[in-house]
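Quick illustration, no need to memorize.
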Amino acid sequence: MFGLTTDSGKYVYLSDGGHFENLGIYEMIRRRCRYIVVSDADCDPECQLEDLGNAVRKAWVDLGVAIRFRGIDVTARRPEPVDGVYCAIADIFYPEPGAEPGQLLYIKPGYHGTEPADVRAYAAMHPAFPHESTAEQWFSESQLEAYRVLGGHIVDLVSAGGRVCSAGAGAQPDQQPSLSRFFKMAEAYLEAYAQKK
């Protein structure tokens, strides 16, 4: 209860890490990962990006690693849905001499009114969707399905129609999914949105 356990104690204190850094970016940066994909499903109805800001700040202050976003166009839900994107890409600059920069794909659930019908039906009845509080853990079937379908919709859009996800074990070697290809598809998705604006 007081967090007084040690590595030689009888009990272990186990935490999901949310009290320190809720997205898991810090540990991936500490391990010098080249490609990082993170989904921020925090309850953030105003899209203030508190968890993302915390991770970026800690990576710089503690680890000397700069994370620079090319742009963040994710937006909060509005009473009348507006077009938008579900992700942003950042470059990661590791401080070691000659270190190759990494990339971070930040995915943030949103509601733009173009989602599948079942998601729109749920959203019409729940104005806080997709940022409902998780304090109440008894999710209904319709709530769980709305979030699951929204997640699949987002990944399909970002990965250009799901080609990355659908290339199975029987695919030819040049069709095998790779993180670098996934990031290129995410870049194309963001470029298409920028041209549409």
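DSSP finds six helices and four strands in the chain.
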